[in-house]
Structures are given as C-alpha cells and as structure tokens.
C-alpha cells in the first residue's frame, strides 16, 4: 500500500494558497512516494474563487493527488488531517494597532485550534504561516490540549532563506555554500538572523565577509524588512517565496537533517536558551524524520544576547496581550 497524507490548508484561495497547493499536490512537500488528500478551508465569500483553484488542480492531473475537499466549515476541513497549514489570517489594515491585529487573529486561531483539537488526528502537525504567526501558533496550541505542544510550528524559514541569499551574494558564494543560519525569536522586525554561528563553505561567515558592521547593520535590517520591500516593489506581499518556505519547513521536518546541519522553525519553548517555556520561539532545529529537537550549546556574544532579549520581550508581550482570550 502507498503512503498517503491528509493536509488541511486554510486561506486556500489566497495568494500563498495559489502558490502552495500546486507544489503540495505535485509531491514537493511530502515526497514523490506519498499520495495527498487536500482539505481546503476558506471564508464563505471566497468559496467561488476556491472552486476555480480546485478546477485548476483538477486540470493538472497530478498523479499523487487523491482528493480535494473545499469547505468553509473548520470541523470539516480539519477532519482526520495529518497536517494543518494555517495560512489564512486577518490582514493588517492601515491604521490598525498591533494589539487590534493580535485580537482579530486570536478570534480566528482560537476557533481553528479548537476545531483541530476536536477533529484532527491526535498526531496532527500544525504549521502556522498567517501573521502574527508565532502568536497565532501559540493561540492554536493553547486551544488544542489533545495535540502535543511539540506538534505546533510557526514559520521562520522565509527569513532564513532570505538571510542565506543575502550572505551568499555578499560573499560571492552560492546559496548552497551557506549553512546553519538560524532565525531566533519572532517572525517580525525583532527577529535575530544569527550570522555569527552560520557558515559559508564550512567556515564562519565572518571569515568570508570581513565587514562585520555590514553583518550587524544592513544585513540584519535587510532580512528584517524584506517583507516590506517586496510589498513596495510588487504592490502585493510575498507569496511564492512564502509558499516555498512552507514547503521547505515541512520537508525539513519530515526528512532527516544532514549531519552537522540545522534549520529554522519556531517551536514551543522548553526553556532552552533561557526563553520562557511555552512561547513559540524561532530556534535551530534538527529532525530525524519523525521527531525534532532544538540544537543545544550554541553560544551568543553580547550583541546576539541583546537581540535575543528584544525578540523575547516582544513575544512575551504578544502572549500577554492574548492570554485573556484563551479560556
Ligand atoms: P491573502 O489575503 O492573499 O489570502 C488569505 C486568504 O485567507 C484569503 O483568501 C482569505 O479569504 C482567507 N481567510 C481569512 N480568514 C480566514 C479564516 N478564518 N479561515 C479560512 N480562510 C481565511 O494573503 P496571503 O498573501 O496568502 O498571506 C496569508 C498570510 O500569510 C498573511 O497573514 C501573511 O501576513 C502571512 N505571511 C506569512 C509569512 C511568514 O513568513 N510567516 C510570509 C508571507 C505572508
């Protein structure tokens, strides 16, 4: 019998949805030997558009695609799923405070957390992409006591991929030469893209790039503000690269990590590196294909410690702002 996986995707008619569904259905997320069932969740108003996306999926005649369910009912969407990719979220509108954004999304992610708890397999894994993704993941995790906390993830891979390319270009290297870039903390402008512990062709980044002021300044700023730069250039937020990062994240979690390597994803803190337990914090992670672990023993200089303290503070404040909604 062939393996199969049932995947829920929320916000499936959105921009990221349009880029990711075809890659999942073609086997790029779960591999060429795993058949795929797609459970697509959208707001009622977007169901006609979602129907069009489904028609296009049909028209690809993907060999691995077994079924497509479209619905606006979260209980249907999360029924018996192995994976849930939470992409749909309430977008930030002009003049909206961060607190309003957190509360709007808390409404969505408490409901979806509950629906996952009640309907998904209890081995289900959940990757949150919709922003603010770390805290949305914190909310969903809090509402799903039947699912282990370690099955919840928030996406920092797009930041990692952005950082890798910036470093490669600066060093006149190829992006495959760059390893072990970790995005510590929040997927936000407080994230810390750790170049000190990353390597280019096996050597510390600071050996290939001697301009440490660039690394501490423009490099970090470019990665932190890349999302805004894309919006400015494209008139729309990054979608294909975000979908690509979600494919990379799941792929990294379901395949063994090569010896000596690690990748970035936000997971439920167990207190590692002094981060408060329970926060969804971006860490360096390794997987054996089934289980993952946080890489221990990475050292941080004073500069890094300050950056990590700042992103920890922001995530703690986000947690405190939504805590009263989690009953
Ligand atoms: P989009 O606006 O094109 O699509 C979002 C879709 O979600 C819409 O079709 C909407 O109808 C749907 N939706 C909204 N609320 C929903 C709900 N309660 N249930 C089901 N569907 C719902 O947005 P796009 O570009 O696809 O981005 C989606 C999210 O991903 C945004 O929050 C964005 O900020 C975030 N994002 C995260 C990144 C990361 O690195 N973590 C990178 C890029 C985007």
Q: What keywords describe this structure?
A:
globular, alpha/beta, 327 residues, 3-stranded antiparallel sheet, binds 1,4-dihydronicotinamide adenine dinucleotide
Please provide a written account of the structure.
The longest helix has 22 residues, at about 100-120. It contains 11 helices and 14 strands. Helix 1 (about 15-25) crosses helix 10 (about 240-255) and helix 6 runs antiparallel to helix 8. It is globular and about 55 Å long. The N and C termini lie far apart (about 40 Å). The mean pLDDT is about 95. About 45% of the residues are buried. It has about 325 residues and is of the alpha/beta class. It has helices spanning about 15-25, 45-60, 75, 100-120, 135-140, 155-170, 205-210, 210-225, 225-235, 240-255, 300-320, and strands spanning about 5-10, 35-40, 65-70, 85, 125-130, 150-155, 180, 180-185, 190-195, 200, 205, 265-270, 280-285, 290-295. The strands form 3 sheets. Strands 3-2-1-4-5-6-12-13-14 form a 9-stranded mixed β-sheet. A 3-stranded antiparallel β-sheet has the order 7-10-11. The site of 1,4-dihydronicotinamide adenine dinucleotide (NAI) has 27 residues, from helix 1. The site of 1,4-dihydronicotinamide adenine dinucleotide has 27 residues, from helix 1. It catalyses: (S)-malate + NAD(+) = oxaloacetate + NADH + H(+). Belongs to the LDH/MDH superfamily. MDH type 2 family. Catalyzes the reversible oxidation of malate to oxaloacetate. GO terms for molecular function: L-malate dehydrogenase (NAD+) activity. This is Malate dehydrogenase.
């Amino acid at each position: 019998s062939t393996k199969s996986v049932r995947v829920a995707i929320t916000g499936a008619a959105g921009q990221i949805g349009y880029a990711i569904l075809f890659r999942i259905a073609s086997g790029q997320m779960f591999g060429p030997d795993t058949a795929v069932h797609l459970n697509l969740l959208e707001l009622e108003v977007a169901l006609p558009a979602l129907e069009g996306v489904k028609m296009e999926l049909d028209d690809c005649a993907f060999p691995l695609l077994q079924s497509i369910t479209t619905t606006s009912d979260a209980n249907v969407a999360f029924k018996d799923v192995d994976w849930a990719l939470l992409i749909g979220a309430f977008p930030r509108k002009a003049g909206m405070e961060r607190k309003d954004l957190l509360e709007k999304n808390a409404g969505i992610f408490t409901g979806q957390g509950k629906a996952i708890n009640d309907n998904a397999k209890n081995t289900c894994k959940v990757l949150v992409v919709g922003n603010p993704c770390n805290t949305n993941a914190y909310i969903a995790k809090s509402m799903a006591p039947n699912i282990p906390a370690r099955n919840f993830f928030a996406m920092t891979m797009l930041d990692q991929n952005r950082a890798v390319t910036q470093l490669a270009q600066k060093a006149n290297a190829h992006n495959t030469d760059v390893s072990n870039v970790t995005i510590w903390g929040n997927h936000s402008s407080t994230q810390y893209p750790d170049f000190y512990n990353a390597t280019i062709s096996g050597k510390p980044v600071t050996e290939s790039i001697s301009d440490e002021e660039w690394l501490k300044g423009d490099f970090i700023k470019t990665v932190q503000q890349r999302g805004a730069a894309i919006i400015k250039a494209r008139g729309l937020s990054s979608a294909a690269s975000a979908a690509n990062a979600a494919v990379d994240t799941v792929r990294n979690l379901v395949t063994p990590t090569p010896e000596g390597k690690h990748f970035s994803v936000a997971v439920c803190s167990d207190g590692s590196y002094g981060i408060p337990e329970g926060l969804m914090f971006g860490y360096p992670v390794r997987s054996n294909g089934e289980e993952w672990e946080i890489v221990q023993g990475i050292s941080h200089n004073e500069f890094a410690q300050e950056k990590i303290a700042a992103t920890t503070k922001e995530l703690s404040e986000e947690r405190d702002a939504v805590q009263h909604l989690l009953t």
